[in-house]
Model the fold of this input.
Amino acid sequence: MSAMTMLSKGDKYYSYSGELFGDVSAPASIQMIFIPNTGLKDSYVEIMPSYGKDISDANNAQLGIQIKLDDVVIVNAQRTAFYETMYGPNSFKLFIPRQSKLEVISLNTSGNNTQIRSCNLIGYYL
Done:
């Protein structure tokens, strides 16, 4: 899990999770990115999740993503709701009000806790 890092000019920020995975005892969700305060300006954010292998259609193995803004779920998607092509998932482009808490969570099931996943985020201050 990564916090927000400002870019050199201060007009953008980024965050990344690195590779995350669990084992059979892993929780039903894994926090990938947590930013407790996005700053003093509104921002436009692109969130790019990625996975180590194709996401299964099996009922017990569907990975998903959840994005929370100030503890309110604004994106809650599993496989078919966000998986664009065989080359990877969509990115999510969102408007984030100033001083918001932003959290990106990987949704898991018992069939996929060991699968590698990660997330990158870039925010542009408006």
User: Anything to note?
Assistant: Residues 5-125 form a domain with the Jelly Rolls fold (CATH 2.60.120). The longest strand covers residues 43-51. The chain has a mean pLDDT of 79. The chain has one domain: 5-125.
